[in-house]
Write a structure and sequence with these properties.
The protein has helices spanning 18-31, 45-49, 60-67, 86-93, 150-166, 184-196, 209-218, 230-243, 281-293, 297-312, 332-341, 390-398, 445-457, and strands spanning 7-12, 36-40, 69-72, 98-104, 118-124, 134-136, 142-144, 171-176, 203-208, 225-228, 251-255, 260-264, 315-316, 328-329, 374-384, 405-412, 415-418, 430-437, 461-471, 474-475. With 483 residues, it is an alpha/beta fold. Bound molecules: nicotinamide-adenine-dinucleotide.
Length: 483
């Protein structure tokens, strides 16, 4: 007698095509014998409209905390300020740091320009520009903070290498834009090199994201696992999924320490909602990742092989339907029926899936950080001024020069405009004014406060400050463009 308890999971049917693809997915899971105890929560548009700006009822978190496994259909994020994306919130509050997005082509059964493609994109999920810290600072200038942390980066890079090891992948590629963002993306690249050294059997490469993205779109077969900061991963996983044949063909796992959420990579596709047209494959593949995660590899394998056989048999939803390739154009429900009919069968030409001996649950541990010596070596004071003349702004600011701190540079949108600026440089009302110590003497934060008080008394408007530090003698800030 089987005494093993079913695994508890939480599901949400979401918005748009969500309920249809969730129904199809759950019918297939049940027919395949997935051993699940399902709790349902409501999320999305209806909840936003009830005034919950996060799109989820407070009590729904209790279910998630209990089951720690979430199968989520896409939701519609309302446009406009005040509403927060539930997807981003869930990933961040539950610490789901790794977003795993396999993008595979199914040639010759699904039309694609890239028959050999089998790429897994591992996207950092918690930080970067998705920290959601944005401010309007002046009439003209808005800011979004890009935060990249060492622990966040170490976790995702190590996850990518551990994933490659567990799934027998040969190469891990990293995309960043560290030729421009030398500190944030620079850290991501540096940690990739450091941690990569611990995996001598895995090939490693780094591309600047622009040429990397071009190569991925042109020759995806040359890539294996790709690890990226959040924004690049978000954009490029859609590109990668779409060029396999349809964005509707890719699932996604969001993995944290003790929590996981599984979904399709696409959105709620409101234009085809309620029409029994949507391809349920993305959510189904997310659910298959979930089954592997909870230790039901046999059921995962059974469903994925039946699904591959369904594609091989030309049973296609509208998004992948092609007269010369497909045998039937099926609705969402009928596609699910076609998969159910094939449970127990294997693909004949595509490679059958085997998840035995594979567990996606590797533990990521961080090495303790070494102590560093941090020294205050100046301050950037951001000023709002509609007077577009850097020379006269410098003169007004120099009144505040003290024995400790002295104006050394002014930039506008990062480009040096004083001293020795170019008259051609276009200036907004947002000025970054760098004050450095007068001599090699030590400064402290009280000196910064004295400086700010003095600037304030000149009637200039300070909109924010950013301390300049050295860490073990290395500058923790960048030079200006043109400096
Ligand atoms: P989308 O992914 O919903 O749709 C993009 C295109 O792909 C559309 O042409 C759509 O018809 C098609 N498509 C998507 N899924 C499909 C499927 N399963 N079968 C067949 N065709 C499919 O992107 P969008 O239109 O930019 O966004 C719609 C809404 O979804 C927005 O409110 C957005 O915020 C939300 N969204 C949610 C998630 C999520 O919940 N994880 C992710 C992305 C977007």
């Amino acid at each position: 007698m089987n005494t093993k308890k079913p695994t508890q999971i939480t599901i949400a049917r979401g918005d748009g095509i969500g309920p249809e693809i969730m129904d199809a997915t759950l019918r297939i899971l049940t027919a395949a014998g997935a051993d699940l105890e399902i709790e349902e929560i409501e999320i999305g548009e209806k909840i936003y409209q009830q005034g919950h700006s996060a799109g989820i009822l407070p009590e729904a978190w209790d279910s998630l905390r209990k089951t720690r496994v979430f199968l989520k259909a896409p939701i519609t994020t309302p446009q406009g300020g005040g509403f927060k994306s539930l997807n981003v919130t869930t990933r961040k509050v539950l610490g789901l740091f790794a977003n795993v997005r396999p993008c595979v082509s199914y040639h010759p059964f699904v039309d694609t320009k890239h028959p050999e493609m089998d790429v897994v994109i591992i996207r950092e999920n918690e930080e970067d520009l998705y920290a959601g810290i944005e401010h309007q600072q002046t009439d003209e200038v808005y800011q979004c903070l890009k935060l990249i942390s060492r622990p966040g980066t170490e976790k995702i890079i190590r996850y990518a290498f551990e994933y490659a090891k567990a799934y027998n992948r040969k190469k891990v590629t990293c995309f960043t834009k560290d030729n421009i963002m030398k500190m944030t993306d620079g850290l991501f690249h540096k940690v990739f090199d450091e941690i990569g050294n611990e995996y001598p059997d895995i090939e490693k490469e780094h591309w600047i994201v622009d040429i990397g993205a071009a190569k991925l779109a042109d020759t995806p077969e040359k890539f294996d696992v790709i690890v990226m900061p959040n924004l690049y991963g978000d954009i490029l996983s859609d590109v990668a999924a779409q060029i396999t044949g349809s964005v509707g063909l890719a699932g996604s796992a969001n993995i944290g320490d003790g929590f996981a959420m599984f979904e399709a990579i696409h959105g709620s596709a409101p234009r085809i909602a309620g029409m029994n047209k949507a391809n349920p494959s993305g959510l189904l593949l997310g659910a298959i990742q979930m089954l592997v995660h909870i230790g039901q590899q046999d059921v995962a394998e059974k469903i994925q092989n039946a699904w591959l056989r369904t594609l091989e048999d030309g049973m296609h939803t509208y998004d992948i339907f092609k007269e010369n390739l497909s045998k039937a154009r099926l609705g969402t429900k009928e596609f699910a029926d076609a998969v159910i009919e094939r449970l127990g069968q294997k693909p004949q030409q595509l490679k059958p899936i085997s998840y035995s001996n594979q567990s996606a649950n590797f533990k990521i541990t961080l090495k303790p950080q070494q102590e560093v010596v941090k020294k205050l070596v100046g301050v950037d004071v951001f000023i709002c001024s509609k007077q577009r003349d850097p020379e006269s702004l410098a003169k007004r600011l120099q009144v505040s020069n003290s024995d400790e701190l002295k104006l050394s540079m002014i930039t506008n949108r990062g480009t040096k405009v004083w001293p020795d600026g170019f008259p051609e440089t276009f200036c907004t009302d947002h000025w970054r004014c760098r004050f450095k110590p007068n001599n090699a003497s030590k400064i402290n934060y009280a000196d910064v406060l004295t400086l700010m008080k003095s600037i304030h008394e000149t009637d200039l408007e300070i909109i924010k400050t950013e301390n300049l530090y050295e860490f073990d003698g290395v500058a923790g800030y960048t030079a200006a463009q043109g400096q």
